[in-house]
Amino acid sequence: MSTQSSIAIVTGGSRGIGRDTVLRLAARGVRSILTFNANQVEADKVVALSAEAGAPAVALQLDVGRTASFDDFVARVRGTLSRMGAERFDYLVNNAGTSSTATFVEGTEAQLDEQFAVHFKGPFLLSQKLLPLMADGGRIVNVSSGLARFAFPGRAVYGPMKAAVETLSRYMALELGPRRIAVNVVAPGAIATDFSGGIVRDNPEVAKALASHTALGRVGHPDDVGPVIAALLSDAFRWVNAQRIEVAGGIHI
C-alpha cells in the first residue's frame, strides 16, 4: 500500500511514545487519527507538528478504560475517515496506558480491574470494534513492556497485564491472518517520559540505577521506540508477524 494514502490510528498519541510514533509516521506521509484522554492541548500540538511534516492528523478523545464509549468512538472514526476521503484505515497502534505500582501483597481488586480495563480489555475490544473499518493487509502493533519478561518491585499488577497483551497478540495474528493483517508487539524498557509520574525522566537516581542494568548504559527515550513501531507498520516488515520486539537497550539481559 502507498504510505502517502495510508492512515494510522494511534491511541495515546498525544504524548511520549505515541507522540513520537505519530510524527515518525508523518515523516513517511502517513496520516494519523491519534487519541488523547484528557490533555487536548498536547494533542493539538501533535496535530500541528504532523501537519508541518506533511501528513494531516486528527485528535479524538478516548479513554481506553471506558469500553462503553467505544461504539461512539468508532462512529467518530468513521466520520473522520470520510472527511479524510477514505473508507478504511491501515494501521492500529494500541499504545495508550496507565501505570501501576501495586505489589502482589498489597494489590487490590480495584487496582486489578483498572489495569485490566486499560491494558487488556480495552485493546481487545477496541481492536475488535475497529476491525470492520480496517483495510485487509493492514498492520497492528500492541505496546507491551519489558516488565512482561522480567520482574521488578511494585509492578505485580502492571507487568502481568502486559504479558497478557503479548499472548493476545499471537491469537490476533492467527485469527486475522486470513485478512493478511499482521500483529506484532513492541515492548519498551525504561523510557524517560511522564509515564508513572515521570519517575525515569525526572529522578536521576532511578535513571542511573536502571541504566546500570542496561547493556547500552542509559535509559531510553520516546525517539528510541517510535521509529521501531513506525517501521513495523511499513512494507519493509510485511513478513514479520506475531513477534515480540523488546526495545530496551538490553535491560536485564
CATH architecture group name: 3-Layer(aba) Sandwich
Share of β-strand residues: 15-25%
Helix count equals: 8
Mean pLDDT: 94
Tally of DSSP β-strands: 7
Principal-axes shape call: globular
Strand order of the largest sheet: 3-2-1-4-5-6-7
Provide the CATH topology. Answer: Rossmann fold
Rg calculated over all Cα atoms: 17 Å
CATH class: Alpha Beta
User: Helix share of residues?
Assistant: 40-55%
Could you state the CATH homologous superfamily?
NAD(P)-binding Rossmann-like Domain
The domain tally reads 1
The residue ranges in which pLDDT falls below 50 over 5 or more consecutive positions are none
Secondary-structure content class: alpha/beta
List the helices and strands in order: EHEHEHEHEHEHHHE
Distance between the termini: 37 Å
List its traits.
41% helix, globular, alpha/beta, 253 residues
Description:
- 41% of the residues lie in helices and 17% in strands.
- The chain is α/β, with parallel strands linked by helices and 253 residues long.
- The protein has one domain: Rossmann fold, CATH 3.40.50.
- Strands 3-2-1-4-5-6-7 form a seven-stranded parallel sheet, with helices on both faces.
- Strand 4, helix 4 (109-130) and strand 5 form a beta-alpha-beta unit.
- Helix 4 packs parallel to helix 5.
- The N and C termini lie far apart (37 Å).
- 43% of the residues are buried.
Structure at a glance:
It is built from 8 helices and 7 strands.
Tell me the layout of helices and strands:
Blueprint: E1 7-10, H1 16-27, E2 31-36, H2 40-52, E3 57-61, H3 70-83, E4 89-94, H4 109-130, E5 134-143, H5 158-176, E6 182-188, H6 199-202, H7 204-212, H8 222-232, E7 244-247
Parallel strand pairs: 1-2, 1-4, 2-3, 4-5, 5-6, 6-7
Helix pairs in contact: 1-2, 1-8, 4-5
